[in-house]
Batch of 2 targets.
Target 1
Amino acid sequence: MAGGESSEPLLDVRDLTTRFFTEEGQVNAVESVDLTVHDGEVFGVVGESGSGKSVTALSLIDLVESPGEIVAGEVWYRDADLASEMAASHPDAVDGDAVDLRRVPPEVRRSLRGSSVSMIFQDPMSSFNPSITVGEQIAEAVEVQRRASTNPRSTRSRTQGFGLGSMLASTVIPTRDYVGEESHERAIELLGQVGIPDPEARAGEYPHQYSGGMLQRAMVAQALAGEPDLLIADEPTTALDVTIEAQILNLLADLQDELDMAIVLITHDLGVIARTCDRLGVMYAGEIVEHGSLEDVFDSPVHPYTQGLLGSIPDLDDPAPRLDPIEGNVPSLVAAEMDDRCYFADRCPKAMEECLDKPPAFAVDGAGVAEEADGTGADAAGSATGSDGVPGDATSHTAKCYLADHEFDEARALPEGYFDESDGGSDT
Ligand SMILES: Nc1ncnc2c1ncn2[C@@H]1O[C@H](COP(=O)(O)OP(=O)(O)OP(=O)(O)O)[C@@H](O)[C@H]1O
Ligand code: NI
């Protein structure tokens, strides 16, 4: 193989669909999401509360809990060693150097957590046991990864339900006797690496002795213990004040650079996206409705939802840009209450008759617009349609909106109040 980095994406997610089966009905939390993340890049996911960002993140690492379930999709992760290990037993799950994590046994998926893909959350307290020192907990994370890496993965998957596989999978942390001196030293090194002053002393402190910002750093250190290639960060700075937020974002940027790690950064804050991301996806009602490079999406947003979000940041230099809610409400994701239309149409100033059908993803630029079949029935997509661009090329600028491909036509605009009648006409 030619050395160096592959141009293949590190993560290539297709048609990922996650639902919750609740008493109130089926919640379509994540609907046919496509996204790609390349080596060493920061991919942002932005959207209002309830749009499906966190469930997307959890789906990527298979942490969706009941009554939630991933019902469709592929999660291709590039790992040449894993691909060759899986090639014989799970040929369907292997394509070149990439492995579809949805098609490998759960214990193989779990074994990647921490070592290949790590996650950090908004609330660092949730990642630490309050009664064990921070240093000890990070040393344990190091120890777990250290043992995992000294055993070939094939051994691990054969010893399923026993030893490392289950150790990594469970929330039960190995007892202290397991943790070697080297792991303790590495933990202190990691604390230093994430900018914790006097890491040797701080390692001996308990989580409650840390400030919010310091604990956030410690959580990053814990996530780095296995030297992951991909870090998923769900609102990592939302609970922090603006100064500390900037420090944590700088830390992530430095680490990403230093360790050549890719990051999926989830936030409702477009200011954070603007400062950190290379590319982004804008989520609305469980879908990625616009997707592209930071420049494409910020300079020429196509979806009126994206335009609305961007319109709500008057000044990117504002230290605390805020998402001003767009008029109207985020739709219910309960399947029975969703119409099969563009979910933003009822809030959209440019809704047209076309928007009563669900729009596919249109490529925004490119003369022979590449149109991507929406979810099911995409099997004919192998041969390129259009003259320009590949259908579903996840690196391009796309929008699930007719305006990406059609001019706004006043004559076809839906009359004002069109949607009010259908949902509100019950009283008097
Ligand atoms: N355990 C659950 N049971 C039922 N529905 C759920 C569950 N978890 C999430 N959902 C639903 O899934 C949808 C997406 O939620 P998600 O947490 O991903 O949104 P989000 O974009 O991360 O929002 P926020 O910015 O508030 O974190 C919401 O409608 C939410 O109510
Ligand atoms: Ni969330």
Note: The longest helix spans residues 242-259.
Target 2
Amino acid sequence: MAKETTANGETTKPPPTPSPLRNSKFFQANLRILVTGGAGFIGSHLVDKLMENEKNEVIVADNFFTGSKDNLRKWIGHPRFELIRHDVTEPLLVEVDQIYHLACPASPIFYKYNPVKTIKTNVIGTLNMLGLAKRVGARILLTSTSEVYGDPLEHPQKEEYWGNVNPIGVRSCYDEGKRVAETLMFDYHRQHGLEIRIARIFNTYGPRMNIDDGRVVSNFIAQALRGESLTVQAPGTQTRSFCYVSDMVDGLIRLMGGDNTGPINIGNPGEFTMMELAETVKELIDPSVEVKIVENTPDDPRQRKPDITKAKQLLGWEPKVILREGLPLMEEDFRLRLGVQKK
Ligand SMILES: O=c1ccn([C@@H]2O[C@H](COP(=O)(O)OP(=O)(O)O[C@H]3OC[C@@H](O)[C@H](O)[C@H]3O)[C@@H](O)[C@H]2O)c(=O)[nH]1
């Protein structure tokens, strides 16, 4: 390789040119896509969708803390698919063109179980994935969360809202962790010119959620199918907006493919109190089950609903599946896994 001489007489080497193979693959639009957390609930549905495109090669990195190989069983052994047991808090070296960075436990009971590990996953894990993106020139999408708005004082939540977050609360490992992850994304973008995308994901539900995941939709459906009382955490008037997983995946893929960095809210703006959700699940699955009020956990946000104007305008995206259509699809999956027949 040619040597260059600097003003003070030292010789330096110019940087290596990219391998011709990488360029030829790139220009064939043959995308190599890394999905961290790809064995999880949203991750595995995203992998299904990405694998539908025959030009895509998909690599999943997952430590299987909340994800499961079972979610990916149809792809194991496929020539365009690779599964790596890997924890994102350790560096990863792979040649890819796009990174969907989802890895992190998302259910409050799981992310609070080992809070130090959760914040490491968000901070060190995101740094590692940004380092990888920088090294290989990949575009990177972070799945952030509606939890960055904390217990919001503005309703519905627009992306411009800075949030109301308790920095020392039991949820901080997750909500502050994701806030730092967003900061890191923008700092790499501004400092190193990385191509970034940030999705703020609102509550999502659908088949493959862990049955004892602890989140409200999976809890209520499993409880109704087992004939147990539905546990509404006090006061029951707190609200959430629930997005069906296929809509979520469609939003993430549009965001990755588009020109806007985000952050962009991806969620279903239909808003329900937890009491209304319990009544709906009861009516759809088993009107004879009871609803009981149980103790809540600290810092539970009282209301949450996305403003999706940006997603509509910039991504041409809006959710299609309403709650009453999505719940039965999830019920079907839970019936199969729990072995409960329809009466
Ligand atoms: O059995 C239950 C479980 C939960 N709940 C209530 O349901 C509401 C939703 O709780 P979940 O645990 O499902 O989820 P949260 O909205 O608290 O957090 C979620 O926010 C968005 C995503 O980033 C994450 O998936 C998750 O952190 C809370 O008000 C909670 O108190 C019940 O009433 N009963």
Note: The longest helix spans residues 115-136.
